[in-house]
Each structure stands twice: as structure tokens, then as C-alpha cells.
Specification:
By secondary structure, this protein is of the alpha/beta class. It is about 25% helix and about 15% strand. It has helices at about 30-45, 95-105, 120-135, and strands at about 60, 70-75, 80-85, 85-90, 110-115, 140, 145.
Length: about 150
């Protein structure tokens, strides 16, 4: 008769059965979080653009480098509205508002983005440009939409 050692395996005896470690990643919470983030960005992205609707003219000029500080946006709408950073301003109150912008400590580095509707009279745009010049705000950029081919 042969005598040997008998290993107890399975459920009987002294050995305990251990569950095997889970080797699968549960991706359902990750997908849920990513879908919520996607929806949040889809809703907020259009809100990040300027709130004054202006039909900008097209140009073939290359874009300028972005300034260090956020620019002040002055918008002229087709209906004759004048806005400084989404706040309506009358043409008579414009010089005082521009003087306040020029008196700010960071006005030397501040860029003014002028957005004017393409259907506007050239004189109205030049009147605003003249007020900017008189206030000492000389870093003015005209905002346009890009064109893919020259006309």
C-alpha cells in the first residue's frame, strides 16, 4: 500500500475557497461621467462667445496673436445699437465710458476688439474709431470672419 499525502481541496476540509480577484474594469460610471461632461460642454460652449449678434464682414487677413488680458469688445449692430462688453451704451455716453477705460491702470496693454455689422454705414464705424483715438485707446483690432478664397 502506498501512502501519500492527500491535499484537501474544494469545499471540504481545512482549505477555504476564495473568490478570484475581479479583473474587469467597470466602465459604466466612467461613461456616465463622460456623457454628463459632454452635455455640459455642448451647452456652455455657445455661451462663451459674445452675446451681441453682428454679421461680420469677411477678410483674408491672418489672425492676430491673442493678447495677455481679455480684450474689451465694442459692438455695432445693424439696428444701430452700440455695446461695450454686452452692455448697451449710447453714442453720447461713449466718450465717458472710453475715458474710464483709458484711465484704468492696465489700459496700455488692453486691446479693443471692434465688431461692426457689414451693413453699417462706414461713417458710424469711423465715428466710434475717432472716439477710441481721442480717448487714447490705440490698440484697436477690427473683428472679421475668415474667408477661404479671395474674391
Amino acid at each position: 500500500m502506498a501512502m501519500g499525502l492527500h491535499k484537501s481541496g474544494g469545499r471540504g476540509g481545512r482549505g477555504r475557497s476564495r473568490a478570484a480577484p475581479m479583473s474587469e474594469i467597470n466602465v459604466t460610471p466612467l461613461v456616465d461621467v463622460m456623457l454628463v461632461l459632454l452635455i455640459i460642454f455642448m451647452v456652455t460652449a455657445p455661451l462663451l462667445t459674445s452675446g451681441v449678434p453682428v454679421d461680420l464682414p469677411e477678410t483674408n487677413a491672418r489672425p492676430l496673436d491673442q493678447p495677455q488680458q481679455p480684450p474689451v469688445q465694442i459692438s455695432l449692430t445693424q439696428a444701430g445699437g452700440l455695446f461695450i462688453d454686452d452692455r448697451a451704451v449710447t453714442m453720447t455716453a461713449l466718450p465717458a465710458r472710453l475715458a474710464a477705460l483709458a484711465a484704468a491702470p492696465d489700459s496700455d496693454e488692453r486691446t479693443i476688439m471692434l465688431r461692426a455689422d457689414r451693413a453699417l454705414d462706414y461713417g458710424k464705424v469711423m465715428r466710434v474709431m475717432g472716439e477710441l483715438n481721442r480717448a487714447g485707446l490705440i490698440h484697436v483690432s477690427m473683428v472679421t470672419t475668415g474667408s477661404s478664397a479671395p474674391e
